[in-house]
Design brief:
Elements: H1 2-70, H2 73-94, H3 97-121, H4 128-134
Helix pairs in contact: 1-2
């Protein structure tokens, strides 16, 4: 009976270690995913911000040039702004669902790829040392 008690105690300790390890792994995976997406979002935000600033300066230069060519500054700005206004109105009024689905599919594919890469790389060290200490 004493041997059976030791075995039950050992199994409960191993089960406790397993649950703790599984919880720790889940928390680490979640933290890794959150940090990955935050880093990626910041990188994209900085890149898009730089592109937008360049686009604004380029469009301003084009508007000034067209205004000088046409001898009317307002005409240069109107010509440059009109494609943006037309595209913006189309996107607001029509609300194309294909664009939304495309963005959703791309984000989902990137998320699944990051999960697959993470599963292939991560492994937690075994708790053999703690088992040896208990015995």
């Amino acid at each position: 009976m004493d041997d059976l008690g030791k075995r039950i105690k050992n199994v409960t300790h191993e089960l406790k270690d397993y649950i703790e390890t599984k919880l720790e792994l889940t928390l680490l995976n979640f933290g890794d995913q959150v940090s990955y997406w935050i880093g990626r979002s910041i990188q994209s935000l900085v890149g898009y911000t730089i592109l937008i600033i360049g686009l604004v300066f380029g469009m301003t230069a084009l508007a000034i040039y067209l205004g000088e060519v046409l001898d009317e500054m307002w005409a240069g700005y109107a010509i440059v702004a009109s494609p943006f206004i037309i595209i913006g109105l189309i996107l607001v009024i029509v609300k194309p669902k294909a664009i939304v689905r495309s963005i959703q599919n791309q984000l989902l594919a990137e998320f699944i790829n990051s999960l697959d890469e993470e599963d292939a790389v991560k492994e937690l060290p075994s708790k053999e040392t703690s088992k040896k200490e208990r015995n």
